[in-house]
Design brief:
Layout: H1 32-45, H2 56-60, E1 66-71, H3 77-85, E2 89-94, H4 98-111, E3 116-119, H5 123-129, E4 136-142, H6 160-169, E5 170-180, H7 183-195, E6 199-201, H8 217-224, E7 230-236
Parallel strand pairs: 1-2, 1-4, 2-3, 4-5
Antiparallel strand pairs: 5-7, 6-7
Length: about 240
């Protein structure tokens, strides 16, 4: 899940008016299986971007399920595994990278998953224009690109303006879960989330990895080499 949506948010623009810039290629080399999944799976499991509010209950044809937003799901393996682990939850998965969208649609069909819908679009516009306020029970942002230098903070997905927008879409008690394998970025995320008055940390600093988040192959290899992964879980007050 290394491919992520990255949005440049500048301080001198209103969040609802600023142009969205993605720092990941929308296109890419598709395998035959991914191309086939885009053709056959998107009509069934995809949502076409449009600047109008979604009825999430209607999208998933059930009203009693928790609704979780997966931001930047990469090639979709983790999202698919979480959806299998939590069948009583519904997942709206946003990604701009075409091969990743095809890969997740392929996994959906292979695993006969019914609780994922995929949208290929920059997540800020999805949040601004498609998701009603207080409509989400949770948000997952796993392994976003950290943009190492602090002077690149405007290119980092996790920043104050974006977090405030996320908070407006979370229900009271809804959670925001960020996982990263870069310690400096974990420190940055902890600082930004802790500064948002609408959020409360569920731990003193970093959380124990929740059971629903599976270990990726990359993460398993890193742990064996002594590398760390940091999970941050905050809830909406």
């Amino acid at each position: 899940m290394n491919e992520q949506n990255h949005t440049e948010l500048t301080q001198d623009e209103d969040l609802t008016q600023r142009r969205i810039r993605s720092f990941v290629l929308r296109q890419g080399r598709l395998t035959k299986g991914q191309a086939r999944a885009l053709e056959t799976g998107f009509p069934k499991f995809g949502i076409t971007y449009a600047p109008q509010l979604l009825d999430l209950n209607a999208q998933f044809n059930r009203a009693d399920s928790k609704k979780i937003l997966e931001i930047g799901f990469g090639m979709g393996e983790t999202t698919a595994k979480i959806a299998q682990t939590l069948p009583d939850c519904d997942f709206l998965a946003a990604e701009v990278h075409t091969p990743g969208v095809g890969a997740l649609l392929k996994l959906i069909e292979e695993s006969a998953l019914t609780n994922i819908r995929v949208i290929q679009h920059d997540v800020v516009e999805v949040l601004q224009n498609m998701l009603p306020d207080a409509s989400l029970d949770g948000v997952h942002i796993f392994f976003p690109d950290p943009w190492h230098k602090k002077r690149h903070h405007k290119r980092r997905l996790i920043q104050a303006e974006f977090v405030k927008l996320l908070c407006s879409k979370l229900k009271t008690g809804g959670y925001l879960h960020v996982a990263t394998d870069w310690q400096e970025y974990a420190e940055w995320v902890l600082e930004v989330l802790s500064a948002e008055p609408e959020l409360q940390n569920t731990a003193k600093d970093y959380a124990v990895k929740p059971g629903y988040r599976p270990l990726t192959k990359f993460e398993n290899r890193g742990i064996k080499l002594g590398h760390g992964v940091w999970d941050l879980v905050f809830v909406r007050r």
